[in-house]
Fold each of these.
Amino acid sequence: MASFMDEKGACFPTQEKLAERTDVSIGTINRDVQELVKFKVDGKPILLRKKYKTKAGHTNSIYRIMPGILTNSKRFLIVAKK
């Protein structure tokens, strides 16, 4: 997800692109993204998702990675070192 991020932390990769890059199924991508959206550090989410409908009726998502939460959290740094 982070490899698609712009300077503001926003990204909008397709499920297909994420699956291709990580060599896993789209179902696995869906489950993993849902888990990331639910995951919180110090009560704050590390990934925000905003869904919207296109004119063609498809649902797309824009994600925002919250990097400040990760770099400012002692708890995350401890978990990341294990």
Amino acid sequence: MELVHFLFGADARKESIFRSDALSPWTFDVAVDIAGDTISAARSGAKPSRIFINGPVEGCPIRPQFDERAGLFELSNENWKANLGHLWFGLPISAGDEAERFQPSFRSLFSYFVRRQLSGGFQQPMQHSTMQQTWDQQVSICYLLGLDWTIPGRFQELRGQEKVAQELRKVARSGDLGRFFGKAADLRTRLTVAEARAERLRAQLENFEVVPEYKALEREANDITSEIDALNVENVVDGDLLQQLRASLNEEDAPDLGDVTKLYAEAGVVLPDMVRRRFEEVERFHRTIIENRRAHLNAEIGSGSACASSRLPMRSSRAHRPATHGHDPRHARRQHDLGRSGDPAGRTTGSAGFGAAAPNSIRARTCTRRIRSGLGRLWPERIDPEGASR
């Protein structure tokens, strides 16, 4: 019986007879029918963890490796037991995880059919050994009889948890847990401190005071954004004015008096020299006005371009101004977050916030006033005191 168990996967400890000096060099084999095929399995005490197989192995769920030197197939003792359990008893190929530890095994089921006298296998019909645990008896018998073997497995899980709970209660009563988790008084102190801190954080969240310097950063970000938006609006107004001035400069032409002279000639009216001289004086006067106006428009264009160019470094300096926080990168990040998230009071802190408050009508009125102011200096007789064109 010991030899049968040895060939079919029994543990071969150091005290095993097959690992003695007398039997260790010997190799024992057995011919057995597995899945309709007859194969030969050999095992020795010198290498108890390896099984050598001779025969067809195509039906084995875990394929053995072929040893060219020995001319036989070789696999581990654990894989040998897994193949036998699957082919003889229909056991699944288990990965051996802890969740399935209370399940039937090949060695336990096989021992019910090959009982050993020295292990007390013939004393009780429900157990194959006096050392067999209760859960293993219940799981194995249920599996052999076709009953639900998972029920006794779950019961064993509960028994294990109950045992652990009893041990914890025993250690807790003895006071040994205090060395690892602290005493009850220390735990109550920690709990009080933690609750006070949680209450303080909850109050800060309710009052929007998670970051105390939020208000100062918000005001500073709003001031810088307002200055930048004011410069942007002025640049837009100057750009519109420059466009208007360039269009007016391109449209200015000198008056042509030849059409008037031709009209009088076709009418048969002979103009005296005094009238022709008057036309020439008027022509020179108008040419002088147009030249003066062009000069003034060019001066205004140059002035507007210079103003727009001078605002660029001012805008850049305000956009990158470190303010009172030096070069702390956290300030720049917080200012960016404030500008992106918005003001709780309703004001949006960003470059688009002020632009929304300056509609096109304000820009148009500003451009109109500046154009009329420039034209009033050129043609005062054509602009009334109220600014309306005649």
Amino acid sequence: MPITRGCPIDRLRARAITRTSHDQWAPARRGQADHIRDLQAAIRAITCRLSLPVGKKGTRKEPGGYRSAREWFAKSRRLHLLQDRLKRQQADQQAGRVRVVRGGKRLARAQHHLEAQGVTVTSAR
């Protein structure tokens, strides 16, 4: 059976879908790099303030220590959380993995409210 070529319109649609899909990767990579930079900045800031004594007053040029032991403890927990997030993001970046969401708000809302539309989970997939 010979292979027939599709309609030129079908090829154009497929090309448009592929192009828009590929166009989503560049902003996702930039966003991932920005997120890593933001995490690193937050880690530096918290580490700097954690190294200062509790209750130390800050100046105009330098921040002071945290006001109480409770705040110091909460920020030390936050620091560990940020470090874990940074490790995951860096691992994703080194593996070349980027999180790209296909579809938009309308599709996401439709998927989260299947019962309201009278659709079952198995038929939606």
